[in-house]
Design brief:
By secondary structure, the chain is an all-alpha fold. The protein has 16 helices and no strands.
């Protein structure tokens, strides 16, 4: 077997690549994937999914197909991860196949659009639930967004002071968010046992009455579903820490995504057991409503507090990771130097934390229903590009050792499906503008890359 001696271009410089220990096995990999995926998304997306799908049955079909799609995506990424055993995910694969500009665009959009915008949506959920818990129905959208902004600033300050507080918060939140999902499912069971469930949501033909016949609606419904599966590619960012990647990546990914898919499907069955589709579409606080439907005010408070802590951990951890990604790429020359560096007093990437926290606050000016298609279009465009890498390298490097291979038909299907996800929202009047604005980041990023390239070249000539 030919040994791959390349190093990830994302955060390392030649001759200065630290070695990491391969300590993550199948069980740990599955747990990491499950823990990263399951979060506030399952309380955000149902409203959009059922609004676009139009019926309980169609919505459940979309959720089921999304689980299958995410699992196939993970298996395709397992081929790339075992063929190119470097941490860094899409940046590494796109850079190897298509060069620096496409890889830069991926990193640019991830650091400044996809990750901060998605965390802004989670912060909005926190603000919505917090304001309803404190002020009840008197809460308004600006009170919710103010609470979300304060949360981001406070968690940004905690990240500046040190990582210890954030890691403790993450540990607590990881346990609590599993508990919140389990409690949600128990709410559905409780309502069923009490005899107040909406059984008609599962009976044909009523289950599919009102289903949308517009393909663009289903494209957007998938976007909302896929938002909850955002971390399906987590394992490819830690490939160098995984034991026997040729076995752990595909099996760990398969087991982890299977657990996520089953959990989400059960959550949706619980929702449909407790509410009509009209109630799901109308509410912005479905978790709070679920707790109240099953256990009254105590259930409402328990569900809300658990969700708030889950959001705290999710956003705090995201600021920690995204800021270090920005600092890492800035220090390696991908982004301007002023965005990187470690503060001597706090030993944290203060400038990167300030930039990322500011971006999250900026995205709070938009509505969550605008942000999800806005960021998802660009995100799935790069997933589409990455799936094309599988086919490109099969053609360009047919003899390279691949410890794990997916059937080529799977890669072709994924390429076509993700390409469709990028195009479909353009045909919907409700998402066309946000989709176009998202795609505008590509020419904008290209201009930034060109300016950065010519500035570096000019500076070098001046120095000489």
């Amino acid at each position: 077997m030919e040994e791959n001696t390349e190093t990830s271009p994302l955060c390392s410089k030649k001759g200065n690549t630290p070695k990491v220990q391969r300590t993550v096995g199948v069980l740990a990999a599955s747990a990491v994937l499950f823990g990263n995926c399951v979060g506030a998304g399952i309380f955000i997306s149902p409203k959009g999914v059922y609004e676009k799908a139009g019926s309980p049955g169609a919505g459940l079909v979309v959720w089921g197909l999304t689980g299958i799609l995410a699992t196939l995506c993970t298996l395709a990424y397992a081929e790339l991860g075992t063929m190119i055993p470097q941490s860094g995910g899409e940046f590494v694969y796109i850079n190897k196949a298509y060069g620096k500009l496409p890889a830069f665009l991926f990193s640019f959009c991830t650091v400044f659009l996809i990750k901060p915008a998605s965390m802004s949506v989670v912060a909005m959920v926190f603000g919505e639930y917090f304001s309803h818990l404190v002020w009840g129905h008197a809460a308004n959208v600006w009170a919710s967004k103010a609470a979300a902004g304060v949360l981001i600033v406070v968690l940004g300050l905690f990240n500046v002071i040190g990582v210890q507080v954030i890691t403790r918060l993450l540990s607590i939140a990881s346990v609590l968010k599993m508990g919140v999902v389990a409690f949600l499912i128990s709410c559905g069971i409780t309502v069923l046992v009490k005899g107040g469930g909406h059984i008609e949501n599962f009976q044909t033909p009523f289950s599919f009455e009102g289903s949308s016949t517009n393909p663009t609606d289903y494209g957007l419904a998938f976007y909302y579903c896929l938002f909850t599966f955002q971390a399906w590619n987590s394992l490819n960012y830690m490939t160098e820490e995984i034991k026997t990647p040729e076995r752990t990546l595909p099996i760990g990914g398969l087991v982890g995504l299977l657990g996520v898919s089953i959990s989400y499907f059960l959550c949706n069955i619980a929702y449909l057991m407790m509410f009509t589709i009209y109630q799901i579409v109308q509410t912005n606080t479905i978790a709070m409503d679920s707790g109240f439907a099953a256990f009254g005010r105590p259930g409402e408070i328990i569900m809300t507090l658990g969700l708030l802590v889950s959001c705290l951990g999710c956003i705090g951890g995201a600021i920690c990771c995204i800021s270090r990604n920005l600092q890492c790429t800035a220090d390696s020359g991908v982004f301007p130097e002023f965005m990187g560096g470690i503060n001597k007093r706090f030993q944290t990437p203060v400038r990167a934390i300030i930039i990322e926290s500011s971006m999250m606050c900026l995205y709070l000016l938009f509505d969550a229903n605008v942000l999800i298609p806005f960021l998802s279009t660009v995100e799935w465009l790069f997933y589409c590009v990455t799936f094309s890498v599988v086919l490109f390298l099969r053609y360009k490097e047919p003899n390279t050792h691949r410890p794990f291979k997916v059937p080529i038909l799977v890669s072709v299907i994924l390429l076509l499906v993700t390409g469709t996800f990028v195009v479909l929202p353009l045909f919907s009047s409700s998402s066309r503008l946000s989709t176009l604005l998202g795609l505008c980041w590509l020419p904008f990023g290209s201009l930034v890359y060109a300016a950065r390239y010519y500035y570096t070249r000019y500076s070098h000539r001046t120095a000489v």
